[in-house]
Amino acid sequence: MLLYSNHTTNRLQYIVEFFSRQLFDEPIVIINNKSDFINSAEAKLNYSAEAFSEDEFFIHATSLLFENEIRQQHIDCFELNYHKAFFQTDGDFHFDVFAASFYLLSRYEEYLPHEKDEYGRYAHTNSLAYKEGFLQAPLINIWIQELKKALRKKFPTLVFRHTAFQFIPTYDIDIAYSYLNKGFLRSAGGLARSVFQGKWNDANERVKVLWKKKPDPYDAYEWLDSLHLYCRIKPYYFFLVAKEQKLYDKNIDPQNEALQDLIKYHASGYTIGIHPSWQSGDDESLLKEEKEWLEYIADKKIINSRQHYIRMNLPDTYRKLIRAGIENDFSMGYGSINGFRASAASSFYWYDLEKEQQTSLKIFPFCFMDANSFYEQKLTAQQAMDELLSYYHAIKKVNGLMTTIWHNQFVGTDKLFAGWREVYEVFLKEEVYWDM
Q: In terms of domains, do 293 and 405 share one?
């Protein structure tokens, strides 16, 4: 397919390449010569301010993709086929789908002045998706499906790429064990605290676990292995290996042999990645140190990452990851609510809006995290199941990518998370398993 534009910008090239990967096996070719475009016998998409002929598909271009500044955009959302759209225009499509998709995918709004949440992150309440009620929808994928239908109607012989639903389960191991391998001081302090607070059952459980009379409630690793084997899925594990245990970094000391054995075991059979500590957000040298330490333990190169507590600010966080040698990041989502932060259920390359260039960092957005459902949204296990299923069906409908985040403690035996293990098992075995 040919796409005509008066001129080609990095923004236009980026979003056209994204749509090409979603729609076709061959790339959409951008040309700027009007005469060559008009005379071509290929399927043609005119992305400009004026239509040329009846044998083209015309999308009236707005200014966003031809700008080189970051400014407040005037956005009016409207209803289109029971979902939202914006940058409304005339033509063969009712809005500038390229500009609207770029705005959401690049996280344009996160470069504008905004409020932070209690953790210093971009607050989801700032987002257009939250304000307009489409945070729970993979809106860009929906738009792509509609564009595909419109193009097929205009060009019946046009061949589109076959896409299928994909699922990537991921786990954050930031507290590998509840009681074990904490060291004498942390264990003694925890026991004393339980006794002082009158939590006798907790104190009794801690003693039994430490004396090997009972399994650690956060130790769900063998159970997960069995589940993955049954469902024939290959998950990703992200390990927190902060040298100092402080602030929100409460992991086991990475010098601990048990944690190192756990990392080696998972590195041998699964894909693992770094879970950069909270502290590394203030000290880039720590990110490099933690990544190198994880590589040393795992004896393999680490190219995958997800931010601890989803501590992420654009563009700084992603630039740091690139400098550290990270190729794939799984942090695109909120640490305060579930949904589609970039309005996409597809992987994509990060566009550095300040530098106006596509980068090598590939983004794998997530739509569901157990901790969001439990701590932030205050859902029960059954309500979380309903939420999971709503995302599953929405993504399956557009043949998109579904990435979820679970923590080992949620699928262990801790009574605080009673029912969550069963929810996850049912979800994998009765829903996702049959699509793999």
A: yes
